[in-house]
Design a protein that fits this description.
Number of strands: 7
Distance between the termini: 54 Å
Structural class: alpha+beta
Shape: globular
Oligomer: single chain
Radius of gyration: 21 Å
Number of helices: 12
Helix content: 40-55%
Strand order of the largest sheet: 2-3-7-5-4
């Protein structure tokens, strides 16, 4: 008698959802199912479908109602990220909603929030976070973002901010691998300001039409995740918020939340790849069925960790980075296996590799989490 495991169920078993959350998932899945294939928009000017972005309502999903948002919490945002990851849909969700908007809400002055957040919530303004260092480091995911002058530090490279004669700010330098940096209507730029005695990292607002701003789209390993190189050539900028501000702390808090949302994306992509592998399975050998069953367990474990981190109140310990480490490994393993069953372009594998380069790798995410929580004592630190 054949006792090999049957195909995994299509729907996850580990994440209980409210009726409202189930409706968010259903609506998004219907919208994204009707769109063109994953790579359809990578050659477009925006890198995504602006009309679809407006219809989804994801821009203001977590913004307060006073700014025109829906006021949902991190679980709803994780659901949205899982569905866009499942469809590998190019969208401003990561750059605008996950990375930029929390910084605007946390650090912006009342006037800045009133001017920018309603436009973002309505889908009329997209944003990008320009970091002159690897996102994993600048967001505190794989290292201490308060150590070293990763924003410039007066040396070559990075982005420098200087006071202009009119009392404003001017930016000089370059940031690479900026997600949606070629198309965003507003850039949030981390730059180094002050001399040695007053060295600090600040965040600045630079509109897309600012003189001295030069943007070029980069060739990307993952064609569904647009990247750009952004140059600042005496570009006028507005300080985000007021000094003094704990910019590294705000970036680290955003990084912890972003790790949860990236994990949700990876879980969605892995689950879709696993579904396609199951469809191609048929009556093939028992060993293949065992491998897929093992992958199903790995994906479900990553999903459970992701939603536990999303539900955890406050900044928490390191649930987000740990969930991201598990999700990246599940995605890589599932993408490797799914290649044997499908003839489509290897978009899942490209997403896995790209996210590891930008926000990982998994081993460093775990090492940083262990260091911050004191898991291995003072010796490890």
């Amino acid at each position: 008698m054949d006792t090999s495991p049957s195909a995994p169920p299509a729907e996850p078993l580990t994440v209980p959802l409210t009726q409202e959350q189930q409706e968010i998932r259903r609506t998004l899945r219907e919208l994204l199912t009707r769109r063109p294939g994953p790579g359809a928009h990578h050659t477009a000017t925006d890198g995504h479908d602006p009309a679809l972005w407006s219809r989804t309502g994801l821009a203001g999903l977590t913004l307060p109602e006073e700014y025109g948002g829906a006021g949902h919490g991190p679980v709803a945002l994780a659901l949205a990220c899982e569905e866009t990851g499942r469809a590998l849909a190019p969208s401003p969700l990561l750059a605008t909603t996950v990375l930029a908007t929390p910084l605007l809400a946390a650090l912006g002055t009342p006037a800045q929030r009133a001017a920018l957040l309603p436009r973002i919530a309505a889908g009329r303004l997209t944003c990008a976070l320009a970091l002159p260092a690897a996102p994993a480091l600048a967001l505190g995911l794989t290292g201490d973002n308060t150590a070293g002058d990763w924003a410039g530090g007066g040396r070559a490279g990075g982005v420098q901010a200087a006071r202009a004669a009119d009392g404003g700010w001017r930016l000089y330098g370059e940031a690479a691998r900026v997600v949606d940096g070629h198309s965003a209507g507003l850039l949030l730029v981390a730059a180094h300001a002050g001399g040695f005695a007053r060295s600090r990292t600040l965040l600045f607002l630079v509109p897309a039409d600012a003189p001295g701003l030069v943007r070029s789209r980069e060739p990307a390993l993952d064609v569904t995740r647009s990247l750009a190189t952004v140059q600042f050539r005496d570009a006028a900028a507005e300080l985000l918020g007021e000094e003094p501000a704990d910019v590294p702390g705000a970036l680290a808090a955003t990084g912890r939340t972003a790790a949860v949302m990236l994990a949700a994306e990876a879980v969605g992509t892995a689950a879709a790849a696993l579904d396609r592998a199951v469809e191609h399975l048929g009556s093939r050998e028992r060993a293949a069925r065992h491998r897929l069953a093992d992958l199903y367990v790995q994906v479900e474990a990553a999903r459970a960790l992701t939603y536990c981190a999303a539900r955890e109140p406050g900044p928490g310990p390191e649930g987000g980075p740990l969930a991201l480490a598990h999700a990246l490994e599940a995605l890589r393993a599932t993408a490797d296996e799914s290649h044997a069953w499908e003839g489509e372009p290897h978009l899942c594998f490209r997403r896995a590799a790209s996210d590891e380069l930008l926000f990982g790798p998994a081993r460093r995410l775990r090492a940083r989490a262990a260091e911050r929580t004191g898991l291995f004592g003072e010796e490890a630190a």
